[in-house]
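Subject: for your reference before the review

Hello V.,

The reviewers asked for a structural picture of the protein, and I figured it would be easier to keep everything in one thread rather than splitting it across files. Below is the amino acid sequence we used in the manuscript, unchanged from the supplementary table.
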Amino acid sequence: MNPRRVSNNWSICSSPKSIVKPLLPTLLMHLLRYLTAAVLLIKRGKNSDGRRLLKNLGHVMQNVEYTDAICEFVNCLSHKFDFEMAQQKLQECEHVLERDFFLRFSWKRLVSLCLKIIVVFMTKLIWS
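And here is what came back from the structure prediction:
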């Protein structure tokens, strides 16, 4: 039996790239959203890596064409330091998170953590 044969009349293409390549933009878009949510959900403290990860994530987002409200929120905080725009993006995030299958269960926690992050960034900017 041919291992590439899936059903009677359909066989997998000889190159997996031909199947995966059109899916990459969609997959990467969601992976970036989930990576951003994971970084925002990391517990922050004096010895935590959360701040460093958030800063590194901001650098990654500068080189990516895709943006959504969650990614734009991080960009507003980590590079633009525009706290009013970050609050507006956070309101947009609520709508995105409510509809996302994987994040809909933790969207309230994520939004409350983002509000705390805004306050931390603002106080550091004021006191430095």
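For the response letter, the relevant points are probably these. Helices lie at 16-20, 24-41, 50-62, 69-80, 83-99, 107-127. Residues 5-13 have pLDDT under 50 and may be disordered.

Happy to draft the paragraph if you're swamped.

O.
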